[in-house]
Amino acid sequence: MTLVILALVIWVAAWALNAWLSNGPLSNSRIAGIAVPLIFGATVLIVWELVVRGMNVAAVILPPPSVIAGTFAQNLPTLWADAVQTIGKGAVSGYIIGCGSAFIVAIIVDRYDFLRRGLLPVGNFMAALPIVGIAPILVMWFGFDWQSKSAVVVVMVFFPMLVNTVAGLRDTSAMQRDLMHTYAAGYFQTLIKLRLPAAMPFVFNGLKIATTLALIGAIVAEFFGSPVLGMGFRISTSVGQLALDMVWAEIVVAALAGSAFYGLIALIERGVTFWHPSQRK
Amino acid sequence: ADDVTLQLKWVTQAQFAGYYVALDQGFYEEADLNVTILPGGPDIAPGQVLAGGGADVMVDWLPSALAAREKGLPIVNIAQPFKTSGLMLTCWKDSGITGPEDFAGHTLGVWFFGNEYPFLSWMSQEGISTDGGEDGVTVLKQGFNVDPLLQRQADCISTMTYNEFGQVLEAGVTEDELVTFKYEDVGVATLEDGLYVLEDQLEDPAFVDKMVRFVAASMQGWKWAEENPEEAAMIVLDYDETGAQTEEHQIYMMGEVAKLTAGSNGALDEADYQRTVDTLLAGGSDPVITMVPEGAWTHAITDEALN
Amino acid sequence: MSVIEAKGLNLTFQTNDGPVHALKDVNLTIEKGDFVSFIGPSGCGKTTFLRCVAGLEHPTGGTLSVNGMTPDEARKARAYGYVFQAAGLYPWRTIGRNIALPLEIMGYSKSEQAERVKRVLDLVELTGFEKKFPWQLSGGMQQRASIARALAFDADILLMDEPFGALDEIVRDRLNEEVLKLWNNTGKTIGFVTHSIPEAVYLSTKIVVMSPRPGRITDVIESTLPRERPLDIRDSAEFIAIAHRVRDGLRAGHMDE
Amino acid sequence: MSVIEAKGLNLTFQTNDGPVHALKDVNLTIEKGDFVSFIGPSGCGKTTFLRCVAGLEHPTGGTLSVNGMTPDEARKARAYGYVFQAAGLYPWRTIGRNIALPLEIMGYSKSEQAERVKRVLDLVELTGFEKKFPWQLSGGMQQRASIARALAFDADILLMDEPFGALDEIVRDRLNEEVLKLWNNTGKTIGFVTHSIPEAVYLSTKIVVMSPRPGRITDVIESTLPRERPLDIRDSAEFIAIAHRVRDGLRAGHMDE
Amino acid sequence: MNKLGPVITVILAIVAFWYVAAVPMNVQETLTAAERAGVAVTPDNARARSEAGRWSLVFQNLDALGGSWSVDRARLPSPHQVLTEIYNSTWDEEVNGRRGIVNSGSFSNRSLVYHSGVTLGATVLGFLIGAGFGILLAVGIVYSRTMDRSVMPWAIVSQTIPIVALAPMIIVVLYSIGIGGMMPKAVISAYLSFFPVVVGMVKGLRSPDHMQLDLLRTYNASKSQGFWKLRLPASMPYLFTSLKIGIAASLVGAIVGELPVQRGGLGARMLSGSYYGQTEQIWAALFVAAILAALMVAIIGWIEARTLKRMGMAV
Ligand SMILES: Nc1ncnc2c1ncn2[C@@H]1O[C@H](COP(=O)(O)OP(=O)(O)OP(=O)(O)O)[C@@H](O)[C@H]1O
Ligand SMILES: Nc1ncnc2c1ncn2[C@@H]1O[C@H](COP(=O)(O)OP(=O)(O)OP(=O)(O)O)[C@@H](O)[C@H]1O
Ligand SMILES: Cc1ncc(C[n+]2csc(CCO)c2C)c(N)n1
Ligand SMILES: [Mg+2]
Ligand SMILES: [Mg+2]
Q1: Is residue B139 packed enough to be buried (19+ CB in 10 Å), middle (13-18) or exposed (0-12)?
Q2: Domain boundaries, chain C
Q3: What are the residues whose beta carbon lies below 5 Å from ligand 4 (ion)?
Q4: Is the dihedral of CA C194, C198, C203, C209 positive or negative?
Q5: D21 pairs with which residues across the strands?
Q6: For residue D60, how far is its CA from the centre of ligand 5 (angstroms)?
Q7: Shortest CA distance to D119 belongs to which of D88, D139, D96?
Q8: Residue D153 and residue D120: Cα distance in Å, rounded?
Q9: Hey, which of C13, C16, C24, C217 would you mutate to test ligand 1's pocket, going by the most ligand atoms within 8 Å of its Cβ?
């Protein structure tokens, strides 16, 4: 019980510290911008640890963060091999194929208005097909290895990417298009010099959404059949073995990799769409 | 009436007919019990539910129960309605497999989620590596169905006599196209579907009393089911909320399950238990359990319930 | 031969609320070297007329010729440069590359591009800003860059649709002077839309006053001001007289509403 | 007692690119019933000064009093109405409810609200448009609604930041006349920011010419025009003389750059 | 009509492609069935066929492919098989089935109508929780710098966690504190739907420009007046856009929650379809789920159109 009260005290104290950091004299400094979320994250972990220990929560229900950290450190090779299988092979290949083909299809769809009006509503409908239903089908079609995971990721990222890219390609002002018209520019010239650059903020929006989807898709697909390797395999097997610490270690890997993947795309976005008001400040 | 919650290992099907019959026929009610049956499903670990207090008693396989016990979850077998193992490996005959010695180089489908222990024990007893390669086997984590076999993504898959094997046959495959290895026959049988509770709960006489009545009524249900397989199957069907089970398949399943429960009066047979433990310990470099488990079962309940 | 000649021009937009008669019976002749301003209340069809000339909009009646061709042919022959109300620079291109844009599209060689960009940057006094991005420049500088872009390829006709609408009066004065200088130096034919009476009077050889619903020309005023125009010509009696006439024309148009 | 009194006012913004000296040593006294225009090139601090008066910005030096209080106290006492450059009507409220917004916030009773809305709608000649949404009105009508909103509660001071910047010249003329009428009828003290020299001269009793970098007052011109001003006063010699002085002041400010 | 034309064309093209694709996709099963029925096929054993290419099998056995569009346990059931399954498990089951509504007075647990209802309940409950929580969080983030800075980054990280992996554990943990029934599924739905709502709502609450905010300051308006009179109405278009994403996510959440809890619902249907190799059942449940999603999005769209129109914000 004392541990739980301690957790409460720490929570309040950390919140007060964060409130001071955000609103006090340091509020505009870079340090505060980084420290505040970190302090918040650390507080969550400490409170988690104290509550789990204080209330004697069974390790097979929720292990404390310290145990998870230990498991993480001891199983680095396994975690790494799983990540290579799931992220390196399944997610990344699916991400590239899915986003790449959506990009190309978007350009074609955008060119022919008939396709746009026909394909987008159907696409929206297909995008609503729940992935957990599609995954077993794709595992049946593409086998147990990473290819089926890749296929699931392709299906998951395709429509968000398509919709965003199509929206982006249309996101030019009438004036920008008229300008091209006054130069009597052809379709490809307009595409390359106007529409593609103008579409980039949308394209990156799609790419960012797709990062988290790719990761989740690859992991989920492994629940429906896999080799004896991979993050989804490990999570599902470890739950069965009541090795919850290992489950959480994999979740940590997923969160780290997901955030890193997202961050990487955001970084590239910053370079490519440096001109967009949202990137300028 | 006392409340009892039972967590099943898998979805509602004739594998658990005894409990549904006891519920349906009022055996639990007669024992002054108010029983709730929670069906299981993929990725629901019954042990976790038990540990979290979501259930009082669960159905599990002994290997995974022992492994969980070694992991620090103090669960105890209080009854063992299944005498015989229904687990088997089913292979295409045309894959050229005639015995375990031919497994090398083939792809085998295995259930994980705590169901892999019997397979791993068997393989390590045979000295076959499960890491793929020339003289090992490639293991797939098979999903919930027999497609990997039918579509030849694997040469062998795990099946239960009462369920997946039937499905293979229902899909039009004849028995002479197949080679089957029953764990029971190759000497690595482990105890399946037993009833487990948390150890510390057994110190509570009221709980013990509840379990005594529960086990007694459940065994009454099992015996009724063995005697009336078709009606039992229909009862199971009535309790299946997904509406997915078919009459035909459940009747088949009940028939096969009855063969597995046949030899048991509900009390754990120590010899069977010992054989399971030996099998699990025998796993060479990578045994499923590392120490001889202690206190993993008790006759306290069944002694009381069955006299 | 006149550079631009409109005879009985009509344009009706079909909209959800029914047809909008944007131009009605517009007759206008613009000679080579003319500086023609279009002035009139919002919605009177100034932009629409300029867009018809540019081949961006297609009249529903009457004839319109540009350099003796149809507007579409003229557009394809790249007969004019068009300056929009807002600068409309592409934000992902530097000022230099924005100005080079029409040149790239028209297939000029790299060296020719560089040379022309340099020349027009000089003309609009933006030398040194070539490598900057549009948002790093003030509104007036952006507007000058957009004029430079229209000047980069040698079209005889320059169409400007409220190019200085968004700028403050002082900057506007300065750009007015520069446009006049440019017109004097190059002898281009200029069509210029504005809302400002002084601006119209100050710049033009011919002021076209328009009126809305339906959009039509209500007055065409030939300026009597000399070609050489210092800024303080705006305080001269002649200037004020012309401004008066324009204002009266405009007010008459507004009365109808 | 003066209504607004600024003594040695300074305001420096801290930005990423270093400090911006938006107002430097501003001294200004505005008496009750004055109509004061602020004119100057973009970025000279006109808006900033008005916002200081309104208590929306806090000077970093000097003193500023409004009705003898600090600007913040005056804001809390609801001493002024503020009209922004764009109409800034809330699009989800009808014209009537937009005008009622300050009244709701200040806790007027329903019946009082209705009565006042009716009165100011009448004042700006928008009776009958109460139930319309902003986008159903023309720009000029929207701007009048926004003035009505500022008039709905009885503040002695009216601060207007380029209220007619987005309108065309004819509409602007009409609104100018109306503002003058309003000022004559109510005797309010008005602070008015504009970019247009004729507008400033036409409206004001006092014209404040400002200059940027750092923002400061370079000239304060007391108008000699009578309070009663027909539109064609703008062609009078006196008007042109004042306009000249303003233009010179402005050009001097621009020269520094 | 010219709105439907392209859509129908695309659908027809997809259906045509689907039928064509079904031939090579199902060729193994088709030939095995044909072989069992006594038709000669080449190669004549399943093992050799499993090693041959699909297209080569198609061309070697052109006359034995009649069953391609009616195989049991098809890898790709043909469109009419799926439609028949949908019809059988909705109308037919309810009207003619022993447990159907006509004969029993309540929806049959073998019908997708019943299972849609189960899923819908959890979806709506979860959506209400998720959207409500998302809106509250957004208000907190907009009004508190501390929350903005500490919570927002973690809200993004939370979306990189594979919820499907957590779903069974969430369910078990909720069981353990005595929460069962629809609630665990709703919690997963809420987890998936809160994020789009937070993101959209934060954007929406921050959408008023400086001028609109300053206007209120000149009236010396209080914070709550600023919320009710400015921020909230200004956020409406953003709110509805994110609610549409949220409800679709919520449906996915409910289905995910139904996988491990085999107690009815479309998710349970999909799994049992997979469990027994009944691919038509999976496809039928999939399509019904997508139709449900489309319907719910349409309902929110309808409410949006009405609300925005009443607020004068519809264009
Ligand atoms: N693409 C269009 N479709 C329908 N109506 C249009 C279109 N373009 C312009 N109009 C209508 O035609 C009329 C003339 O418009 P135009 O833009 O030429 O006016 P303008 O004189 O340039 O006005 P402003 O000073 O506001 O720019 C207006 O009533 C306008 O609403
Ligand atoms: N919030 C702010 N932060 C930093 N700098 C500011 C801020 N507001 C104004 N400035 C700077 O202060 C100076 C004066 O700005 P202000 O808006 O008062 O000019 P203005 O005279 O109203 O110009 P305009 O005619 O363009 O409206 C400008 O250089 C501007 O960039
Ligand atoms: C995820 C998961 N996969 C496989 C099994 C294996 N299993 C054990 S009993 C049983 C029923 C047999 O008909 C099955 C399939 C499981 N429990 N959970
Ligand atoms: Mg126009
Ligand atoms: Mg300003």
Answers
A1: buried
A2: 34-79+155-257, 89-154
A3: C 47
A4: positive
A5: D12
A6: 19
A7: D96
A8: 9
A9: C13
Residue D252 near chain C (CB below 8 Å): no
Contact at CB, A233 and B112, closer than 8 angstroms: yes
Q: What are the b/e assignments for A30-51, b being 16+ CB within 10 Å? A: eebeebbbebbeebeebbbbbb
Average pLDDT over residues D128-136: 89
What fold is seen in the domain A72-279? Answer: MetI-like fold (1.10.3720)
Q: Is the pLDDT of residue E1 over 80?
A: no
E105's torsion region: left (phi>0), alpha (psi -120 to 50) or beta? left
Which run of H or E residues covers position E301?
Answer: helix E279-310
Tokens of B53: 């207090």
The protein residue whose alpha carbon is closest to atom 26 in ligand 1 is: C42
Q: What percent of chain A has pLDDT over 90?
A: 44
Domain with CATH 1.10.3720.10 in chain E: 112-310
Mean pLDDT on A184-189: 90
Tokens at C49, concatenated: 């007329």
Q: What is the pLDDT of residue E314?
A: 65
The pLDDT of residue D256 is above 60: no
Judge whether residue E261 has pLDDT over 90: no
* Chain A, nearest residue to E9 by Cα: A118
Residues B293, B277: contact at Cβ < 8 Å?
Answer: yes
Q: Give dist(CA D214, CA C194) in Å, integer.
A: 32
The fraction of chain C above a pLDDT of 90, given in percent, is 47
**CB-based contacts of A172, cutoff 8 Å, min separation 6:** A194, A195, A198
CA distance D162 to D145: 15
**What is the three-class DSSP state of D190?**
strand
Residue of B12, B55, B145 lying closest to E274 (CB–CB): B145
What local confidence, expressed as pLDDT, does residue D237 receive?
Answer: 85
Q: Where are the domains of chain A?
A: 2-57, 72-279
Average pLDDT score over residue span C24-35 = 93
Residue A58, both tokens: 């069974």
pLDDT bucket at A77, cuts 50 / 70 / 90: very high
Question: Which chain B residues have a beta carbon less than 8 Å from that of A222?
Answer: 141
Summarize pLDDT for D140-164 with one digit per residue, the tens: 788 889 989 998 988 889 999 988 8
Q: What does the pLDDT read at residue E295? A: 93
Q: Are E28 and E49 in contact (CB under 8 A)?
A: yes
- Confidence at A26, pLDDT banded by 50, 70, 90: confident
Task: Count other Cβ atoms within 10 Å, centred on residue E45.
Answer: 12
- Given a cut of 90, is residue A21 above it in pLDDT? no
Superfamily, domain E112-310? MetI-like (1.10.3720.10)
Question: What is the rounded CA–CA span in Å between residue B226 and residue E41?
Answer: 44
Alpha helices, H only, C45-194: 46-53, 71-76, 95-105, 110-123, 139-151, 169-186
Query: What is the distance in angstroms between the CA of the first residue and the CA of the last residue of chain A?
Result: 48
- Say if residue B229's pLDDT is above 80: yes
Instruction: Report the C-alpha gap between D91 and E177 in whole angstroms.
Output: 48
pLDDT band at B285 (very low <50, low <70, confident <90, very high): low
Least confident of C227-231, E162-166, E311-315: E311-315
| Chain D: touching chains (3 or more CB pairs < 8 Å) | C, E
Q: Is the pLDDT of residue B284 over 80?
A: no
pLDDT (average), residues A192-220: 90
- pLDDT at residue number E315: 55
Evaluate the omega torsion of the peptide bond into residue C71 and state whether it is cis, within 30 degrees of 0: no
CATH code of the region C34-79+155-257: 3.40.50.300
Give the list of residues 6+ apart from residue C79 with CB closer than 8 angstroms, or none: C66, C67, C69, C155, C156, C157
